[in-house]
Amino acid sequence: MQGSWRIKDLLQWTTRYFSEKAIIEPRLEAEVLLAHVLGKCRVYLYANYQAPVNQNERKKFREYIKRRINGEPAAYITGDKEFMSLEFKVSPAVLIPRPETELLVEKALDLAGQKNTKRICDVGTGSGAIAISLAVYLPEAEIYAVDLSTAALAVARENAQRHGINVEFFEGDLMLPLMDQKPFDIIVANLPYIPEDEYRQLDPGIRDYEPKLALAVKGDGLDKYRTLIPQSYRMLKPGGYLLLEIACNQGERALELVKSFTECEVLKDNTGQDRLLKARKEK
Known about the structure:
Elements: H1 7-20, H2 26-38, H3 42-47, H4 55-69, H5 74-78, E1 80-83, E2 86-89, H6 102-114, E3 119-123, H7 129-137, E4 142-147, H8 150-163, E5 168-171, E6 184-189, E7 194-195, H9 196-199, H10 204-207, E8 216-217, H11 223-235, E9 236-245, H12 251-256, E10 262-268, E11 274-280
Parallel strand pairs: 3-4, 3-6, 4-5, 6-9, 7-8
Antiparallel strand pairs: 1-2, 9-11, 10-11
């Protein structure tokens, strides 16, 4: 990257290079990294396609490219990730929010709109993306969030402050810190559900950088939910809903865990794969 380089040139070169290195969505990743270097949004890149990029900016961009090629996720390089059209701080202390998890938030918003929802709990909040998104789009609701990791909760609290919303955060294992609270209308959770043997086969960019605590679990991947589900039944209001993100091959087994609930179903994502378990506590 010597001589005079424009935004257009850098994006084209980096997209080709990322493609050669088998980076998924190479153009998007190039845009995210360059926009962060320039301190701008991605729209700025297209509005200023012919603008020159100075030497210091190109040097920083080269460093980012090397880190990405070595496997580090772009979100950890920039320290930010978009989720539900909101920007969240992320660090290696938290799982990077996934687009597929937006379905969990969207379904919770739908259910909240069908009833006078006042209290929602997010179990295993991580970066706080789920809880904070719900707080932003349901400003009248009381949002609670819990996580086992002190470091993750520090990130979540910073994200709540960034968006200027109030979420009650608790540290502890699943719902244990909340068992003396009033019942909830909705409980949501995206807990670790990847079995240990499958975890070892994950892409190194995930396995080597993202926190194992937020991804892998012993057994068939549902052990955390086997503990959470009875806790949730106790802590839901009559008629309240439980929403859990699951793996695409866990639908039938997950349904077996919610026999004490009613209106139990597995919801599919945009690719037609199992993604959410929905269950309702009887009125």
